[in-house]
Amino acid sequence: MRSALSKVAGWVRHWPRKKILIWGCASLALVLVAVAGTGYVMLRHFNANLQQDDISGLLGNQPVNTHPQAENIMVIGSDSRQGLSKEYGSGLVTDQSDTLMIIHIPADRQWAEVMSIPRDSYVSIPACEMGDGQLSSPTQGKINEAFAIGNLDGNNTKLGVACTVKTVEQDTGIYINHFIVVNFTGFEDMVSALGGVYECNTTAINDPNSGLHLSAGTHLLTPPQALGYVRARYTIGDGSDLERIGRQQAFMSSLVSRVKSELLDPLAIYKFLDATTRALTIDSQLGGITGLYNLGQSLRSIPSAKIAFFTVPNYPRGEVVPSDTANVLWTEPEDNAIFASFRNDEPASSTLFSTATSSTTAVGSKLVTPTATASTGSSPTAAADPAVSASPSSTASSAEIQDRTANQSICAG
Questions:
Q1: What is the mean pLDDT of residues 91-118?
Q2: What DSSP assignment string belongs to 100-129?
């Protein structure tokens, strides 16, 4: 085994450092290129680690996929507390999606975007199949409740993912090609396999809930510290989910960089791949280990400066419903323009405007495509409750995509 892993390490050593891949699945695919030719037994082992689910029969009518060569991959961070200490929460009777992102990979593979959706987004949730075989009633609430609804009566990840995909497709009109679920326990194992992951915080962090205490500056986080860093919320900064999303996006970049610097060690390669594959649930259409390998191959030429991270523009729902201090609404018309860019296979973030086609008009830091919704054949379902879709003009006029690229550091600004 060590001989095969050494060949993998040698292959990774010659990978240009600027060519960063996206999140754990792409990091995994990076080394699978060599494993495929030198370690069939290991490849089969890693494939067996993966949980693969087919949700195609649970989605009903989906948006029209007008760009089949492009891909939209939903990434869900599972909010299960199984195997974790009480510092990370207790008393949950069902899994929830603590993190929700959509990775857009264009047909030409020249750039990529990672769009984070705040878990406190107040949206319309369609009827979904639950663990007892019954259909839930359509409702409105936090978007992460969709994952919880599917998980009722049995903690069924498959049903939770299906309900989340249905919700996102209904509310954005974006066709979801694939999904990847990462669980918390596996996350710690991935960090442990790498000997820790570096992060940089501009101010001191003191979070009594998770026991995370860091001075300002750069740190090599242990697995528990890393989990606390991406999970902490109320005691850091302004306590918002939006600020936590920014930390998660930065940590994603640091994790991949750490993978590429530490995988020269054959044993580290094995441990990381084993931990990563055990942490993932993917859709069966992705094709298991082979599909992840193909995904990595398709992303090889994308430079880190062309991978953008941003959060869906939003504002407090309390501006519409004063009693609601916990949720956010998506800002219109900016969000519809962003969703249209995903459907039309065009970049939404300001850092990638140079790659946009002539049909796209950039205004400030926003993407405006007036005819995009009409041309896709599928548009988001309008919410019946004005408190779901209303957007104060004062907020909408000033909304921007606050984006960063994969080669930018939080401490560098």
A1: 82
A2: EEEEEE-TT-S-EEEEE--TTBEEEE---B
